[in-house]
Design a protein that fits this description.
The protein is of the alpha/beta class. The protein has 17 helices and eleven strands. The chain has helices at residues 2-15, 64-81, 97-106, 121-126, 139-144, 148-151, 176-181, 191-195, 217-226, 246-260, 275-281, 333-343, 346-353, 362-365, 376-383, 395-410, 416-431, and strands at residues 54-60, 85-91, 113-117, 155-156, 159-160, 163-168, 171-175, 208-210, 284-289, 303-306, 320-326. The protein is globular and about 70 Å long.
Length: 434
């Protein structure tokens, strides 16, 4: 209860600090397109880079190896190019970083720039902790070069409160030996082609065609989307007619049918063999996993990554990663924005790719040397069509609603239509409160 009360008090105080919610028109097609006035807190499009010596604070949660490359390559290059801006980079623990930000902003002790998990951005924006970036010089040019799915993670009520910094997604991962056993020379490009090997599987011998690694949204949504389903409208304002529409109901029915017919294994219900164990033991031909699966380079001798097998031309996965944001309370917004823009330049995106950070811009992706980690090419290609989870402040609650709906159908407790109707009603009520 104390924790809940603390968050309520923090939210009340932070709402008074909102940079965009109170000043930006609800219809971005009208006043929002006017040239911004130059103020201390909102540099105009023509505002020059900071000339006076200034120090900004940057919170991040890079690992030790990532921090080393950031410090030695990226930060050094920035301070050489902008000698009047010193960046005080502070490594923070990932766990509880969102709560630390709320506390810091409330106590007027927040950093100027933060690297945040992308699902936290709308939550922090609603509390007024983040600066809206749409009117900043160069924002439109930068955002135009970023993968659409990643860019949408910075949205809150139609405005952007950050920039994607690095991304990840999931792709199909095949067991090479099982592929050959089932008559494939290479990973099948379509789901229909993969299904062609169904007669070679035998659930009684714990041999399934592939695995959906769980009933939670991270595992389910790539299949829902690839099968033609959707969660919301294009503006993320409603789920009615989308989440519970005929295409999504059909997609969920298809996945449930796979499970009942023994096409996919018990991993979808959290049972053994799970995804990783099953693919290693040869129980599954394919699982869907992120780049962390290939943390050991020798895995490429045994497994092959490929795009999600397509359905009617659709191969869609899910966006993960981190965004870079500016706090609304920063008194050094010119310098903070200069640093943020620098982090999105190709040179820095490519440098951080050396630490395993997948770039978010198409131009940087083309420059990444993948000779040492060829699997990265597949993940970069999948990111071109990958979609984001709903960018809204109530995502944690929505995530639970979706997970519950998917599991209830898989357990036979409700039909797909019933579960998705109920989920859509609950989620729409939350979206209306945004």
């Amino acid at each position: 209860m104390k924790k809940i009360l603390a968050f309520i008090l923090a939210a009340a105080m932070l709402l008074s600090l909102s940079a965009c919610a109170k000043d930006t028109p609800q219809n971005p097609g009208t006043e929002a397109n006017a040239a911004p006035a130059q103020t201390e807190n909102n540099p105009a499009a023509e505002a020059p880079d900071t000339q006076e010596p200034v120090e900004i604070t940057f919170w991040h949660s890079y690992s030790e190896g990532e921090e080393k490359i950031f410090t030695e390559s990226v930060l050094t290059a920035f301070e050489q190019q902008y000698p009047n801006i010193k960046v005080n980079a502070i490594r923070m623990p990932y766990e509880g970083l969102d709560e630390q930000l709320i506390t810091a902003v409330t106590g007027d002790a927040a950093p100027d720039v933060i690297r945040l998990d992308l699902t936290w951005v709308p939550q922090m924006a609603k509390l007024g902790a983040l600066e809206c970036l749409n009117d900043y010089a160069g924002f439109d040019d930068i955002s135009a070069g970023i993968m659409p799915g990643s860019m949408s993670t910075t949205l809150y009520k139609g405005q952007n409160y950050g920039l994607p910094l690095n991304a990840n997604t999931t792709v199909a991962v095949y067991n090479n030996a099982v592929l050959q056993e089932y008559g494939f020379d290479a990973p099948p490009e379509t789901l229909d082609a993969l299904m062609g090997a169904l007669d070679k599987t035998n659930p009684a011998e714990e041999k399934w065609l592939f695995a959906v690694s769980g009933s939670y949204n991270w595992a389910m949504l790539p299949f829902i989307w690839t099968l033609g389903g959707s969660v919301t409208d294009a503006d993320y304002t409603t789920t009615s007619g989308y989440l519970n529409g005929p295409d999504t109901v059909k997609a969920l029915d298809t996945i449930v049918g796979w499970y009942k017919d023994g096409i996919i294994g018990p991993a979808i219900m959290g049972e053994q063999p799970d995804g990783w164990g099953g693919i290693e033991a040869g129980n599954y031909t394919m699982i869907v996993e992120g780049p962390w699966f290939f943390s050991s380079e020798d895995k490429l001798d045994t497994y092959t990554p490929a795009l999600m097998p397509s359905v009617d031309g659709r191969s869609i996965s899910i966006v993960g990663g981190e965004d870079i944001v500016m706090t609304s309370t920063s008194s050094k917004k010119d310098a903070a924005w200069t640093f943020m823009k620098f982090m999105l330049e190709d040179a820095q995106q490519v440098a951080m790719a050396g630490a395993g950070m997948i770039p978010v811009t198409s131009s940087a992706m083309e420059k990444v040397d993948t000779s040492g980690s060829p699997y990265v090419e597949v993940y970069m290609e999948q990111l071109k069509t990958a979609q984001a989870r709903i960018p809204c402040s109530s995502w944690p609650t929505i995530e639970t609603i979706l997970n519950t709906a998917f599991e209830s159908v898989l357990r036979g407790q409700a039909s797909s239509q019933e579960a998705l109707d109920d989920a859509a009603a609950q989620i729409d009520a939350l979206l209306a409160q945004e």
